[in-house]
Amino acid sequence: MRIVAGSLGGRTLVVPPKGTRPTSDRVREAIFSRLDHLDVLDGARVLDLYAGSGALGLEAASRGARHVTLVDSARAAVAAARKNVADLGLAPRVRVVAGPAERYTGALADAPHPSGDRLDLVFLDPPYDLSDDGLARVLRDLAAPGVLAPGAVVVVERSARSPEPAWPDGLAPFGRKPYGETVVHYAEPADPTP
After folding, report:
1. 25-189 sits in which CATH class?
2. Residues of the signal sequence (predicted)?
3. Distances from the Cα of 102 to the Cαs of 120, 174, 175, in angstroms?
4. CA 6 and chain centroid, separation
């Protein structure tokens, strides 16, 4: 696995020996092509949930994100992500958090966020066996007031056999693209109802 483009393009990444399902280079390239088109990467605050090796968040850092947080609960994934951050010289701009995504987003939803600390881009690439309810809970946390910046983008990668994510109030889907066994969903903060 490698960084596809940006300042670190071509650099290789360590991947955990088992227990993760890395996003293919082709799918990452397609996701980032769309994100480039949406102009959300430069200077972005990025959260990569269920990060595995950190490939999505590290790709964002390579392409101009200001700050990236990688979150995973699997020990091997956290070790791989930390090694990648160190090998690429990205600390402290990229940090790794060991723990469940649900706990991390729950804390985000409960804490006040100054406008400069809100998230511009969130990746969710959970294990395909994560329940629909588990995914919905994390999405509800992200949709809590003050977590996402205006114009933020939420990217969810799921199995083609999984249903559309249960988008909570506060998040509006705006795209869906299948890639073989993978489907990538895009959402943005919904306009508050008057």
Report:
1. alpha beta
2. none
3. 19, 24, 24
4. 18
